[in-house]
Each structure stands twice: as structure tokens, then as C-alpha cells.
Amino acid sequence: MYRTHHCYELRPAHSGQTVTLAGWVNSVRDHHGVIFVDLRDREGITQIVFRPGENADAAEASHKLRDEDVIMVTGRVDPRLPGTENAKVDTGEIELIAAELTILNKADVLPFQIDKEISNEDLRLKYRYLDLRRPRMTRNIRLRHKITTAARNFLDETGFIEVETPILSNPTPEGARDFLVPSRLSPGRFYALPQAPQQYKQMLQVAGLEKYFQIARCFRDEDLRADRQPEFTQIDIEASFIGEEDIYPLIEGLLARMFKAGPDLEIPRPFPRMTWQQAMDEYGSDKPDTRFGMKIIDLAGVFANTEFKIFRSVLDGGGVVRAINAKGFAGITTGQMNRLNELAIQAGLPVKTLAFIKCEGGEYKSPLWKFFTDPEKADIIKTLAIEEGDIVFFVAGAWEMVSTVLGRTRLDVAGMMEINKGSTAYNFLWVTDFPLLAFSPEDNAWVAVHHPFTRPKAEDLPHLEAGDYAKVRAVAYDVVLNGYELGGGSIRIHEKDLQAKMFSVLGISPEEQQEKFSHLLDAFRFGAPPHGGLALGLDRIAMLVSGEDSIREVIAFPKNNKGADLMTDSPTRIDFKLLREVYVQSTWKEKEKAKEE
Q1: CB neighbours of 367 closer than 8 A, spacing ≥ 6?
Q2: 109, 298, 302, 346 - which has most CB atoms within 10 Å?
Q3: pLDDT tens, 306-353?
Q4: 80 in Cβ contact with 94 (< 8 Å)
């Protein structure tokens, strides 16, 4: 037996008992020949004392210990002397007087200190097995386990059946590139790793399982960011004979159980709802952070009769003039203003600077102020509730660009003002009534906003038939928390003809439909029930539960921002002989040679 107790377990009630602990040396301190070791395991820390008078051999061996050595210690539990207790740890009232020491494994010099924060993320990822020893990381992984278990239990209690779906499948139009896997047994053919189990979970509804869920691994070959990984995990849910109004209480109950299991938070229900149009109009985002105001205000009424040429031409051309009031931010620095301009341009601002008006010392300062009439100035002040110390940012142009730029500016200003720093608010929200389709100028075609299996609203079907695709809304919904999309879903198409119509709108020919989706279209011929569902991003929920800013902090072995696993050095090059076995020809050598030339 390596241990009788773990390193968090011992308390004054254990005094006098002989126990055995095992773990990692967290720190070693030499006090005039008496060695103090903080021994750590997954559960916590216990102080071990090596006194020459208790056991000379163990005391002598303790002088050779260093951080992260793995040891086993047997000894007597004693209360600490009065005044030496450590209130910072739960075992701080006792210590273990060592009688026997066994060194199970020695540790080399560490690439970084386990008890220190490390700024070099690549170093952390290269030695991830060491990084995971840190209490913060252990806590994150355990929190993830708790909320995952809570989700499984909740769905089981509500009649859902967990079913695994294939990892090797066909490519599907999910909005990102697929990871492809060559098949040795079928030369020239490829599997794709699933971006989501979308078609399989719909097939399970056709199969009559009625309620399905899966903690599903998904894969997307796309650019990375703090809340995105090439492989990720989602809680996938699908049910038959279910409508939009059935989804909301189900998912709210699931999230309530998960956040109770994690941060022990009671989530108020039901969640407020907001249409996609309202979210974009007021927040410039389909996942709005509602913990602060600074809403986008439309100024069409203010400038209805304006003679200011820029605004006049925009409004006459069907565009909009809108603004946000960053209250109390008139003292913005030049550096902050330059940064806002850079970010606005990245978001699509067609000019080099954001137009602004700031109120300082009772004066309104702006290059634009002189172009407005007195009634317009009065309306601006009233409509935007401008007060001393405020700064207003204007954008004029096409609705989509204005919404995106002001939405980005709103968040950037909030970050600079540290509006939500230290906030403990959890503002859950449903965003509903998304557009079904969006026109892609790059592809010169209509594309699905969510995916091609999403059901159009019944009242908008005439628009779909008439080819007025911009007016068609989807029976789709996203659940949002503090500016993060936790999950999204929809009621699905379950009729063969409507699904074929949707494919044709997306430019998928009848021949291609048969090649790629015959299994789905055929299944719908044999009594497919109405069905729908939602997928929650487990990594993102774990990130928010843990109070982290990146999902890499809640994934045991994540990729870095270039999609690389630095610990195992993947992706890696494959020997041409192995490639030949799967009928793949690599051109990377030629490309490397061309670069050199």
C-alpha cells in the first residue's frame, strides 16, 4: 500500500495515528537540520517534518530531496505547535513526523516552477504533464469533470440515451474545412472527421430513438483563437416530436445543473430572449454581452433632414447612421484612440478613423460638430444622453458594416474601461430568429447561416419559394453567456422535398445531392418525425465556469495557436512509403525547395 490517506485528508482528529502518504515534493525547507517538506498529491498538501531524533536514516535521506521528487512517507500525525499553524491550507493545524521515507522516483531540474505562473504558453504546452500538476490546472480539469457528469446525469434523468456516432465519415457542409483521412482499402477515397454529428443524430431520430445525446468529439480545420481549437467537445442533443418552445426549458435546466455542479451558482430562469435583428441593431453582435449598456442608437430621426453631405448620401442610399455613447470615457488617450481605429478598420470601417464627439469642460469637441445645425446638436445630445465626460462614436454606411464596427468598438471600449473587470454576473440570453441564408459575395452564392438542415419558419416559406432568400428566417436559436455563444441549434427539416429545395438553393445539384446526401433524403421517405436539437460547447462552458480566458486552460492536451501539439510534436511529416500505401502523393518537399529558391 502506497498510502493510507491523501494529502488533504489529515486533521487534528487524526493526531497520534500512524499513516502513510505518497505524492510529489512541493517544496523543501531546511531549518537548522530539521527538514520540512510540503508533500502534494491531487487533493492537497501536508507538511512533513524530518527530525534526526525521530529516524536518523529518513532524516538523512530527506536532505537529498528536491522539488517534484515522488516519495512515500510513513509517520505520526501531530498537532502543530501553537503559533506555527498555517491557515492558508486546510491541513495547516497538523504535520506528519516522518519515521520512514521511500524515494519512488527522482525528478530532474524542472523547465519551470510548478508553483509559479508561466507566461510562456509554448513552454507550458511542451511540458503539459508538468503544467497539469499545478493546482489551478488540476482544479480546471476537475471542474470540467463535474459539469460533464452533471450534464450526463441530467440528460439521463430526462430520458435521453447516449449514443456514439462515427468519427470516420463523409465531408459535410458545416461552415468550415474538414480534416480528411485517406482510405487504404478504398484507393483515392477519403473519410472526413466530423465537424459535428449532425446527420447521424438526425438519422437516430428517423430510427425512432426519440431522445439522443452524446459528449461528442468534433473537428474543424479553421483558424484558431482563444475560444477555438481544431478538435473540441460538444454536448450534442437531439429529440423527436419537439418544438422550439420545448428546447428552451430543457437547455436552461441542463445549464442550471452544470453551473450548480461547477461554481455552485443558482441560475435564474427562464433566460431572457432577443431576436437576432434586435441583437445586431442594439449590440452589433449575435452573441451580445448584456452585462453593460452602451447600446447602439439609431440616428436616422436626428438626421432625417440633415444637409451634412456624408450622412445625407448614406441615408439616401439606404444606409444608416448610428452611434454609441461611451459614458465617462472622454479622457481616452491617443494610444487608446489609435487602437480603436485599428480595430474598427479590421472590423470593416471603410475610413481611417472613427468619427466622435466628446464632452469636456462643458464643450463639445469634434471635427463634425461644426457641420450640424443647432436643432441637430440638441437632438444628438438628447438622443444619446450626452453628459460631461462622455464620448460618442459615430459610424455611417451599410447596416451590416455599421452594426459590426460599432459592436466591435463597444466591446473594445468596455475592455479599455475595464467595465466588467471582476464581474461575477452571469447574463444568460437566448438569441432567436436568425436568417436562414446569407449571400456570400466571395462565392457569389447563398450559403446557410447555420447549416443546410435548419428549418425555415413556416410563415417565411413563401419567400423561399419566391427566391426572396434574404427575408427567410430560421427556426434557430443560440444560447449566449456574457458575449460567448455557449451553443446553438435549430428545429430541422424532416421532409424530403423541403430538404431537396434547401440543397438546390445552396447550389447543390440533384446529382450532387444523390452523391452526398442520398442516405438522408432516402431516410426522410420512410416516416421521419419532426425533430430538433442543440449542441453546447463543453470546452467553452468549462472555460467560463473556471473563470479562464482561453479554452486551452480547460483542455488536458490542447493545440497551440498554430494547431500544433508541442508535447508530441504533431502534426508531423509522414514517410513517403506510408503515404504511398494510402495512395497519397506529398508535394511538401517541392514546395520547400521552391521557397529556398
Answers
A1: 355
A2: 302
A3: 999 999 999 999 999 999 999 999 999 999 999 999 999 999 999 999
A4: yes
Cell of 376: 441637430
User: CA 196, CA 202: separation in Å to the nearest integer?
Assistant: 12
3-state secondary structure of 464: helix
Domain that holds residue 82: 12-105
Tell me, yes or no, whether 146 and 264 share the same domain: yes
Distance CA 471, CA 436 (A): 8
Give the CATH number, domain containing residue 248.
3.30.930.10
Go through 308-332 and write b for each residue having 16 or more CB atoms within 10 A of its CB, e for each that does not.
bebbeebbeeebbbbbbbbbebbeb
Query: Can you tell me the distance from the alpha carbon of 451 to that of 535, in angstroms, rounded to the nearest whole number?
Result: 13
In whole angstroms, what is the distance from residue 49 CA to residue 31 CA?
10
Residue 526 reports pLDDT greater than 90 = yes
Residue 560 lies in a domain: no
Question: Are residues 411 and 295 in contact, defined by beta-carbon separation less than 8 angstroms?
Answer: no
Q: Give SS3 for 535.
A: strand
Please, what is the angle between helix 244-261 and helix 538-546, to 10°?
Answer: 40
DSSP 8-state code for residue 128: H
- Co-location of 169 and 248 in the same domain: yes
pLDDT (tens digit per residue) in 166-191: 999 988 766 678 999 999 999 989 99
